[in-house]
Amino acid sequence: PMVTNRAPYQAIGMLLVGDRRICTGSLVGNDLVLTSAHCLGASFTGEQDKITFHLGFRQRKQTAASRVKNIYRGTAFPLKNREQDWAVLQLDIPLGAKFGYLEPVVPTAGASFPVTVAGYSVDFFQRYGEPGVHHNCRVHYKYNQLLRHDCDSDSGASGGPILAFFKNKTVKLV
């Protein structure tokens, strides 16, 4: 399970529409969450206030939560435009100011390196009530703006971070 109250995992949360879990997201700024555009589908345009972001959600408890006030998408058609399958959600409460956020790093083309993937995958979360994490999987290469990896993930983990841990003890969002 993911330890949700320690860096870098305290910046990872679950996206809900009402009581329905849809995906994982990561704080990338004081009031910004990065997730996958396909998590939002074509719906929620003008209905972003129905989406909430829950930090540290485990065993039916959470550290903090905020409603989404704006949605910025790479595309409305993420299944056709995979390289644009991203969405940034603006929160009405700046949770990153209190809990911190992940900083991105862009890998070079052809890079291969170990990573960790964290998220609220349906298989792990339904069984244990906790978010899951897969350590020491690998990003194999970057092609056409897409990363190829061998990390274990399932429905619900979409939008979750791929984390790179560096020797100087920093962690970056890939």
Note the overall shape: globular
End-to-end separation in angstroms reads: 21 Å
Strands across the major sheet, in which order? 1-2-3-6-5-4
Q: Structural class of the helix and strand makeup?
A: mainly beta
Residue fraction in strands: 35-45%
Mind describing the biggest β-sheet? 6 strands, antiparallel, barrel
In helices, the fraction of residues equals: under 10%
Mean pLDDT: 81
Q: Secondary-structure element sequence?
A: EEEEEEHEHEEEE
Number of strands: 11
* Rg over C-alpha atoms, rounded to the nearest angstrom: 15 Å
Number of helical segments? 2
Uncertain segments are none
Describe the structure.
The protein is mainly beta. It has helices spanning 95-99, 122-128; strands at 12-17, 20-29, 32-35, 51-55, 64-73, 87-91, 113-119, 132-143, 146-149, 162-165, 171-173. The longest helix has 7 residues, at 122-128. The strands form two sheets. The protein has a six-stranded antiparallel beta barrel with strand order 1-2-3-6-5-4. It has two helices and eleven strands, in the order ββββββαβαββββ. A hairpin with an 8-residue loop joins β4 and β5 (64-73). Helices cover 7% and strands 40% of the residues. It starts with 11 loop residues before the first strand and ends with a strand.
